[in-house]
Design goal:
This protein is of the alpha/beta class and 248 residues long. It has three domains: 119 residues, no CATH class; 73 residues, no CATH class; 46 residues, no CATH class. 43% of the residues lie in helices and 15% in strands. A five-stranded mixed β-sheet has the order 4-5-6-7-8, covered by helices on one side. It has a three-stranded parallel β-sheet with strand order 2-1-3, covered by helices on one side. Strand 5, helix 6 and strand 6 form a beta-alpha-beta unit. Helix 3 crosses helix 5 and helix 4 crosses helix 5. The longest helix is centred in the middle third of the chain and has 23 residues. The radius of gyration is 22 Å and the shape is globular.
Length: 248
């Protein structure tokens, strides 16, 4: 019998699914977040209930492959459809052979490739995120990354802005990170149009954004603009995060 596993979409849920596959010796054709599950005609659906202890056992089983564990987690955060099955086959191969750099293995190669894609998105978010000061004296930034990179950028911003309260909110995934000068905490907020109302920001912040935009315009030499080179380093999909690119 072939099986489709349905889990809650969390990394612990995925690891629990991996544990279940080994424990029950399942022949799995898919591991799918419950929000995207569609029943198949030729496979039995099994709901996986997240179990932290089972997840920890799988994670500990990969402990001696630290770089590989890193790649599995980062690749998982890509949220690419069907990637869970790739990761399962990769984990099974590594546990069976201990060959963590055998990129002739297609799933192992794919895991490494996706991890690099997520890594590039992480670095771009760290470079392009711009905060705006709210009337509550909290610096706020909203983002829409291609991949779920908020867990990967938390340490960078905690270290860089250690003396400021800030929120980075992923409007695409409806959750964010709040730093209260001590720790970073996941939060959820309700926005009417997937973005914060301009009224929450200070008047000084609006003046600052306008000043920055005017500076950018005044220092731009049109005859020297290389749009192709510019968009290679700052892709257009990131312009929305930059004060100098915001509409005046």
């Amino acid at each position: 019998m072939r099986h489709q596993l349905i889990y809650d979409g969390s990394f612990d849920g995925f690891l629990t699914a991996v544990f279940t596959i080994y424990e029950e010796r399942l022949n799995v054709v898919s591991i799918t977040p419950e929000a995207y599950f569609q029943a198949g005609l030729f496979a039995e659906g099994i709901e996986v209930i997240t179990n932290i202890k089972k997840a920890e056992r799988v994670w500990k089983g990969l402990e001696k492959f630290k770089k590989f564990r890193h790649e599995v987690y980062w690749s998982f955060l890509s949220e690419i459809e069907g990637n869970e099955l790739v990761l399962l086959k990769t984990i099974q191969y590594v546990l069976a052979t201990s060959r963590v750099t055998d990129y002739g293995h297609p799933q192992l190669l794919r895991t490494a490739q996706v991890r690099k894609m997520v890594g590039r998105e992480k670095h771009r978010m760290e470079a392009f995120i711009r905060f705006q000061l709210t009337k509550d004296s909290i610096y706020f930034a909203h983002v829409e990354p291609d991949f779920n990179v908020l867990p990967l950028i938390a340490t960078h911003f905690k270290n860089r802005y250690a003396d400021q309260q800030w929120i980075i909110y992923d409007v695409k995934r409806s959750y964010g990170l709040y730093y209260d000068l001590t720790k970073v905490t996941p939060i959820q907020m309700d926005f009417a149009e997937n973005a914060p109302d301009r009224a929450i920001f200070t008047e000084t912040e609006a003046d600052y954004s306008a000043l920055w935009q005017n500076y950018f315009k005044s220092t731009t030499i049109k005859s020297r603009i290389n749009l192709k080179l510019h968009t290679r380093h700052v892709p257009k999909r990131y312009w929305k995060y930059l004060n100098e690119k915001s509409p005046g």
